User: Fold SDR family oxidoreductase from Nocardia callitridis.
Amino acid sequence: MRVFITGGSGLVGSAVVAELLGNGHAVVALARSDKSAATLEKAGAEPIRGDLTDIGTLRSAAGQSDGVIHLAFSNDFSSEATLTAGVAEESAALAALGEELVGSDRPLVTVSGTPYAEGRASTEADPFSTEGPVGGRANSVMAVLDLASRGVRSSAVRLPRTVHNEGKGGFAGMLAEIARGAGVAGYPGDGSQRWPAVHALDAAVLFRLALEQSPGGGVWHAVADEGDPVLDIVTVIGRRLGLPVAAVPAENFGPIGPIFATDQPSSSARTRESLGWKPEHPSLLQDLENLEP
Assistant:
């Protein structure tokens, strides 16, 4: 396939680009900067300059592709306003991509997060959560899935709170960066809350499988580790960075503090059975051993 991808130079996107190219697909990737374009070109992809606000560019690239994978998001969690703006920007971009593919039976794979399920691990059957700081993204994803009734082979890969590679990435990576600045490896609550995780290289395989195999309306979980206690995560971070470990108020983590404090394990049993996905790379706790002091 000739695959158009947004967010192709990020932690997850770069792994997806490599996975697609390594399995015989051609990749055209949106690039927001000259640096991103050079990175994508070096990886073997064809860069197209633009960002999620360039609706004409998105529609043109999608129209000339055999399939689309959407990964780009502003990832500015500094305030409620920036989160709201990022959600609105993504929503408009996804609507444009979807409309371009209507009636084509071509795949459109988008990204979301694993949902919260009280007292248990969430599954692929659980509904998207429209609550919380980034809950608005769920409405955009559900709109994409609804396009299955209009001739788009749409699907969603739900990523856990931490997608990691070489000790970097996701919420665990954010905890490490916050710890560096604060001088303490902090965690909200009592640290017993569990976070699911996946290695970026394993997540990339699932995006390819969804592109190739998923029926319209499919929802998949890229979860390798069902749920590591946050205290275990922070303990490794503190040891690797040579910092003390301590509980701190959830407010210290800004607008996503409530998410940090929530127990949110997740399962990928149906995904593994249906698509034959088999995570093979290091777990989060193993990968955090790569953190540089």
Remarks:
- Residues 164-196+227-265+282-290 form one domain.
- The chain has a mean pLDDT of 94.
- The CA atoms of residues 119 and 263 lie 8 Å apart.
